[in-house]
Amino acid sequence: xxxxxxxxxxxxxxxxxxxxxxxxxxxxxxxxxxxxxxxxxxxxxxxxxxxxxxxxxxxxxxxxxxxxxxxxxxxxxxxxxxxxxxxxxxxxxxxxxxxxxxxxxxxxxxxxxxxxxxxxxxxxxxxxxxxxxxxxxxxxxxxxxxxxxxxxxxxxxxxxxxxxxxxxxxxxxxxxxxxxxxxxxxxxxxxxxxxxxxxxxxxxxxxxxxxxxxxxxxxxxxxxxxxxxxxxxxxxxxxxxxxxxxxxxxxxxxxxxxxxxxxxxxxxxxxxxxxxxxxxxxxxxxxxxxxxxxxx
Length: 296
Hints:
Blueprint: H1 20-30, E1 45-49, H2 54-57, E2 63-65, E3 79-82, H3 90-123, E4 126-131, E5 137-140, E6 143-144, H4 148-153, E7 157-158, E8 161-162, H5 165-181, H6 203-224, H7 233-246, H8 255-262, H9 266-272, H10 280-291
Antiparallel strand pairs: 1-2, 1-3, 4-5, 5-6, 7-8
Helix pairs in contact: 3-6, 3-7, 6-7, 8-9, 9-10
C-alpha cells in the first residue's frame, strides 16, 4: 500500500504535550500521509542514515521503533527515514526529526533560563567567597569553587579591576586555612565571610557560572534518564533543581523517584521529590511543579 500526500493543514498544530512517538504519528497524519481509511496504518520502523558526526554514525543502518528513536545533532547530515517497507517519503521523516531537535534545543534554553531565575531566588546570590555547610568554597548562587584550578579561572575583580594571580592565590590559601578551623552546621552564614577577602565577581560572572553549572547538571541528568527529553517540562525543572542542590540524582539514592517517574505516577513523584535538608518553601515549589503536570 502506498501513502500519497493529501491536503496538509495550513495552521501548525501544537505538539508540545506529546511524546516523540505520539508527535511523529500526529505529524504524519496531519500532513496527509494517511487517508481516513488508512489512519490505523502506522509506520512501524525507521532506519537511521548517519554520515556526519560520530554520535550519529554509530546508528547508521540501524532500525528503530517510534518509541526508541535516538536524537540527531545539528548540521551533521543525519536523517531518520522510514523503513522501505512503509513507502513513506524519506525527506519528511528527516524534517520531523530536525524540527524535533530544534524544539528540544529551544525548550532546553527555556529550561535553563527558568532555572537560573528560580535558583537565584532560592539560593540567593553572593559576589564574595563564603564557605557552605560542608566547608566548600562557594560563590554566586551556590556555585562550588573548592578546586584550585576552578577557583583560579574565575573572573575575579578587586575594586573594579581584574584580580592578579597573586591576589587569587592569597585568597585561596586563606579559605583553605579557614576550612580547617571552622565548624560547619546546617545553616549557611555567608555574610561572616564577606570581609575575609576583597575578591569579588560581577552579575555577569554569576550568571555565567550558574549557566555553566546547570548545563553540566543537565548533561548528567540526560545520562541518568535516557528518556529525559520526553519528560514534562515541570519535572525537568525539579530534577535539575535536585541535581544542582544535592549534586546527584542517582537511582541508588532515589530508587522510589525513578520508579514513580517510570510509572508516570504524578502524585507519587510529587512525594518523592521532597528533600530533608532544604527549606519548606523550596520543597513546596518542587511539589507544586510536579502536580501541575496535566499529561504525561
